[in-house]
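Can anyone check this?
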Amino acid sequence: MRRTTYNHVRVARALAPGALRTDGAVNGITVDRFVNDVYFRSVTFAVHAGAITDGEHAVTIEDSANGTDWVAAAASDLQGSLPTLTDADANTVTEVGYVGPRRYVRMVLTTTDSTTGGYVDAVALLGVQPVKR
């Protein structure tokens, strides 16, 4: 089998699109790292900012051993910086990686100082092999 992203990466929903994000926190969709008898070693969250008119939209990552009890992922388990999106980040994609030990992981988006808000969604890319950058 050729080593292509199609053959070595699985894509999962992480934060549903379409909702206007205003003040408050929204928990993303639980991402299970064990799929079809494969335990994926890493997860990259690709966070897409659409139109953002105001506010700050802060991304955090949580992990869980059982899919029920969630804690903030340790900084040592993250790759890259946790983004805080503003109107300057409209129509961009940022990414943050997770390489921790827990089976379940999710993104949390917390919006503050927003009147009209913005559109933010995300997908999770589950990978088996590390990618050199």
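Reply from J.R.: I decoded it. The chain has a mean pLDDT of 92.
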